[in-house]
Write a structure and sequence with these properties.
Number of strands: 16
Number of helices: 13
Strand content: 15-25%
Radius of gyration: 21 Å
Shape: globular
Length: 393
């Protein structure tokens, strides 16, 4: 192991260097630009064997990755916000073709208005495109998750693309201490890629990108859905194996002091780290607070989450994006659905926060816990949908 100080972008770029993909196609966009920039320097310095394709747009970047992966290459890219949105046309094609592309994605607000800071609207808008979604709390998890993403994506029962996210600027540009695997260890862990099919195999021709109407479209989409269901066990096992090998196990989610919790919040990304501080503070005040940090959003671990949250009296879901549906944020609707059939379930509320990079403070999170304690005592929810830190509210 090597201990180093790295930003989230540097950590992801270092993971890409150790993966040494065959092809990286990328177009710069803040705050993900550094990932491709740093990796391009690795290419220029001869540290990797990668063919780096500097394309004219993010749409082209994903298209190039699809072409490379279909030809049997291990392909990667990186993007954020409007760049991810420009890829939307191609994202479901990558999953439909069962191509194990891995993409670091730096969470940033979608325009408009124009904004370059963190929320989860870009990732959440892509939640139904057949990509596995893994969220990172810090730079260490970003590094670990990118390495694991390759193993997950290339598993024969999965063969789906994976995006690994970090929170823009909060993680992407902030320095953190991380433990990196030695290059040889990382290479052995990743292993060689042996694609089952390749467009370049003229002796065994395949069809890619054909017209698929009423006759077989449904079956092919079902295959993607089935692979997503199967991926849950693969993700969990890859995480356990990573823990056995390197001492850092990663599950579908992580519970923090949930065993005896009366109230809890559900959070993704960097907010989970802030919430831990609040949990510890409340525990010192003899308040049984807990945290569920959701790491994997697709596939959504609904059964496992339902089991963990079933005994808690009141739960708040922290959504760093708004579905604009008037029925809560995207994480809230998933959690609510997961709990629906439970005979006894927690009182559930939703908190939209941090849009456009607005800070979430420990005081604001503590207020959420105080609201939950009131709900726990009275059994009454005053406001099902809440917004934190909006002027005039």
């Amino acid at each position: 192991m090597t201990v180093a100080a790295k930003t989230g972008n540097e950590a992801m770029a270092e993971a890409m260097r150790q993966i040494n993909p065959d092809v990286v196609a990328a177009y710069p966009i803040t705050p993900a630009t550094e990932i491709a920039m740093i990796f391009a320097q690795f290419v220029a310095d001869g540290l990797v064997d990668t063919e780096f394709v500097a394309v004219e747009s993010e749409h082209s970047a994903m298209s190039a990755c699809v072409g490379a992966a279909a030809a049997g290459a291990r392909a990667m890219t990186a993007t954020s916000s409007q760049g991810l949105a420009l890829m939307y046309e191609i994202l479901p094609i990558a999953s439909a073709l069962r191509l194990p592309i891995v993409m670091p994605e730096v969470n940033r607000a979608l325009s408009g208005p124009i904004n370059i800071h963190c929320d989860h609207s870009d990732t959440m808008a892509a939640r139904d495109f057949g990509w596995i979604h893994i969220f990172s709390e810090n730079a260490q998890e970003a590094y670990d998750n990118v390495l694991q993403a390759v193993k997950i994506a290339e598993d024969k029962s999965v063969k789906l693309p994976v995006m690994v996210t970090t929170d823009g600027f909060i993680i992407s540009h902030c320095m953190d201490k991380i433990e990196m695997l030695d290059d040889r260890v990382a290479k052995d862990y990743i292993g060689d890629y042996k694609p089952e099919y390749s467009l370049l195999d003229v002796d065994n021709p395949i069809t890619i990108g054909s017209l698929d109407l009423q006759d077989y479209y449904f079956e092919h989409k079902y295959a993607v859905a089935d692979a997503m269901r199967k991926s849950k066990d693969v993700i969990a096992e890859v995480g356990r194996d990573f823990g056995r090998r390197f001492g850092r196990e990663h599950g579908l989610f992580e519970g923090y002091k949930l065993e005896d919790a009366e109230v809890a919040i559900v959070a993704l990304g960097s907010t989970a780290g802030t919430a831990r501080v609040v949990v510890d503070t409340l525990r010192e005040k003899k308040i049984n607070a807990g945290l569920l940090k959701l790491r994997v959003f697709r596939p959504f671990p609904h059964e496992e989450i339902a089991r963990v949250l079933s005994s808690i009296r009141a739960v708040a879901v922290m959504d760093r994006s708004d579905s604009l549906s008037s029925a809560g944020g995207p994480v809230f609707t998933e959690i609510r659905s997961a709990l629906f059939d439970l005979p006894t379930k927690p009182k559930l509320t939703d908190y939209i926060y941090g849009l456009g990079g607005r800070d979430i403070s420990t005081a604001e999170i503590e207020k959420v816990y105080n609201d939950l304690m009131e709900i726990s005592k009275t059994g009454q929810i005053k406001n099902l949908f809440n917004y934190i830190g909006v002027r005039g509210l």
